[in-house]
Amino acid sequence: MSRPAASQSSDPPARIAWLAAFAALGLAASSASAYVHYQILNDPAYASFCDVNATFSCTEAYSSQYGSIAGVPVAVFGVIFFAFVLGLVALCAASATAAANLAGYVFASSTIGLAVVLYLAYASFVILKAVCVLCAGTYVAVIGLFLLSGSATRYPMTSLPNRALADLRLLFRTPTALAAAVAFVIAAGAAVAWFPAETVATVSAEAGAAEGEQAPATPSLSADQITQFEAYLAQQPRVPMIVPAEGAAVVVVKFNDYQCPPCRQTYMDYKPVFAKWAKQQPGKVRYVTRDYPLERQCNGFVAQDLHPAACEAAVAVRLAREKGKAEAMEEWIFANQPSLTPASVKAAVQTVAGVTDFDARFDKTLELVKADIAQGSSLQVQGTPTFFMNGLRLPGLRAEYFDAAIAWELRRVTSGK
């Protein structure tokens, strides 16, 4: 089979430079994202430079279910993608025949990349309602590559496979280029294998553990990790908390918004931890939820309505608690979190908890929610979830670190230090 005719001329240097610039932008943004995600996984006290508030937050995006694929951060795959595009630019620029096909290769690659970033952007902006600045940098880079390469492609994309086969034969005949390609494949595989995977054990909010079924074990920390983490905890200040201990040695308070994705994630991740301590030391660890909906209907401390059904959800759980159905209501809310509306919450609390007087009791119950919000404001709560343990504000913690924090606090209280 003869090779399809190439374009009459290769891409001009200016276009190649722009393709390289967009790929470099994406590589820089995804590398920074991977660094931040690595720090989040390995340092529970790490505060990302791109965490401005509840809306502009890289950590919220990385810590969500959309931040990883099979336990590997999405940012790592971004690094691999943009490095691949830069490699294409470098290899094709070195050959006149391959340079004629460069736009098509980048267009095909960026089409796949565009589908991915559109999905991630939807998850970030619509579902999480969070803006990750570093992620936005990768979105801009992919869109730039897509538009630039698409406008420069002058041949049918159906001819691209045959063009690629011809260029691959040229690649295999060029030792330097072949060595670079092999090195890239090895480096990409090593990056995926080397990067620490997400190891947080979670419990499904949709289907609770079967009766008698053992909860998933919380991953273990090394002795060095525990020592460093406990040293960090020992240096943190404490604030007075007006929360009855009811005989518990450790009181964990969570300021919660039922429409907040990280609140849902910690609800699932920490379930095995609380179940463990309830079994090992019954009554010694008390978990208390305080409402802090990010909705102006009940929270005057927020600048905009981030979660338009959060106030209704908080009231619904309180009314369900009177029926002994608080946990069932929480599970339903978190399972249906992306599609919550005030109307759906109102209908669900009647179905799940048998509450038939939601409207009649809404205003009075909302005053109790506002009391929680006032307490949160006095403690300088600015986003959700925010955790306190015996008055010590905890950073966002993976389940294993949260478990270690409770163990440390129990020893501290028991020893009287």
Q: H/E series, N to C? A: HHEEHHHHHHHEHEHHHHEEH
* Structural class by secondary-structure content: mainly alpha
State the CATH topology of the largest domain. Glutaredoxin
Order of strands in the sheet with most strands: 4-3-5-6
User: CATH architecture of the largest domain, please?
Assistant: 3-Layer(aba) Sandwich
Describe what you observe in this structure.
The structure is a single chain. By secondary structure, the chain is mostly helical. The chain folds into 2 domains: about 180 residues, VKOR domain (de novo design (two linked rop proteins)), CATH 1.20.1440; about 190 residues, Glutaredoxin. It contains 15 helices and 6 strands.
SSE diagram, text form:
Elements (H helix, E strand, L loop, with lengths): L12 H30 L15 H5 L5 E2 L2 E2 H20 L2 H4 L2 H27 L4 H20 L7 H13 L2 H20 L28 H12 L15 E7 L4 H20 L4 E7 L18 H13 L3 H10 L6 H12 L4 H21 L7 E4 L2 E3 L4 H17 L2
Parallel strand pairs: 3-4
Antiparallel strand pairs: 1-2, 3-5, 5-6
Can you give me a brief rundown of this structure?
This protein has 417 residues and is mostly helical.
Features:
Glutaredoxin, 2 domains, 6 strands, 15 helices, mainly alpha, 6% strand, disordered N terminus, 417 residues, 59% helix, single chain, two-stranded antiparallel ribbon, de novo design (two linked rop proteins)
